[in-house]
Amino acid sequence: VMESPVSTEPSPGKTPLVSLTFEKDPDRKRKFLEADPKILGVAQIMLSLFNIGMSTIGCLTVQHNCKVELASIFVSLCTIAAGSISISAQDLHLPKLKACLALQIIGGALLVVVWPLHLGTINVVYSYKLCWTESNMTEARTTLCDSFQAVYGRISAEGELVQVALIAVCMTLAVYSGKAIQCCGQGSRMPVITVNSPPPPSQSSEEVWQEAGQ
Question: Which regions span the lipid bilayer (predicted)?
Answer without folding.
Answer: 39-64, 70-87, 99-118
